[in-house]
UniProtKB/TrEMBL annotation:
This is Uncharacterized protein. Residues 1-17 form the signal peptide. The lineage of its organism: Eukaryota, Fungi, Dikarya, Ascomycota, Pezizomycotina. PANTHER family: KELCH REPEAT PROTEIN (AFU_ORTHOLOGUE AFUA_5G12780). GO terms for biological process: glucosinolate metabolic process. The keyword Iron applies. It comes from the Eukaryota. Keywords: Iron, Repeat, Signal.
Length: 169
């Protein structure tokens, strides 16, 4: 009985460890990034947890994480953190862009594709992450002439409050 308990506990620990976006992450792709105040924010895309030989599933990455470019962790690489707020009402897409606004300390999540069923009433609303207050704000639907794209290239000019994204291939 004790042995069985230990084995079950071991399985639970392993399953839990596999979904750890910092300690258990193996590969990430299709995500969107931006840098604000020397922090590289990584949102969305797909993530594989190690060991990939056992589970090669491309999981939707629903964490908002960042690398601190001014503090190295192990192996002389910037330290990764996944402790920023992001709940399921904020979309987790792949192939979108983050329009970084270095002046107002926010970034906007624009475009991209859902790998799973999109939220019923989405209509591509614009969400923005507020770096200083660690929270997301909904900016509502973009103007009708703006259509969302994915796997394009985005650029932002914080000083002018302008951003654009062009369609990908
Ligand atoms: C994961 O995504 C990669 C890249 O798109 C693809 O080559 C691979 O087949 C996918 N793996 C699974 C298990 O779906
Ligand atoms: C992090 O490590 C790299 C490689 O050794 C080094 O070039 C860089 O200056 C380090 N960054 C910091 C902030 O210490
Ligand atoms: C995340 O963790 C880092 C390192 O412990 C800490 O400096 C930072 O304040 C944390 N951020 C939040 C939003 O909790
Ligand atoms: C999820 O986050 C959004 C944006 O910060 C917030 O408006 C909403 O109340 C949160 N929902 C829950 C269930 O916490």
């Amino acid at each position: 009985m004790l042995l069985l308990t230990l084995i079950v506990a071991g399985l639970i620990t392993t399953a839990y460890a596999q979904k750890d976006p910092v300690g258990g992450f193996c590969r990430r792709f299709g995500h969107q990034t931006t840098v604000i105040d020397r922090k590289l924010y990584i949102d969305g895309g797909f993530i594989n947890y190690s060991p990939m030989e056992i589970d090669a599933t491309n999981y939707t990455n629903d964490f908002l994480s960042y690398l601190d470019l001014d503090h190295n962790g192990s192996r002389d690489m910037p330290q990764l953190y996944a402790n920023l707020s992001k709940n399921s009402s904020v979309p987790s897409v792949h192939g979108g862009v983050l329009w970084g606004d270095d002046i107002n300390k926010r970034f906007y999540l624009f475009g991209g594709e859902y790998s799973q069923q999109p939220p019923a009433d989405s209509g591509s609303p614009l969400w923005a992450y507020d770096v200083l207050n660690n929270r997301w704000d909904l900016f509502g639907p973009p103007p009708a002439f703006v259509s969302a794209v994915s796997y394009g290239a985005g650029v932002t000019i914080s000083e002018r409050g302008r951003a654009t994204t062009t369609a990908g291939g």
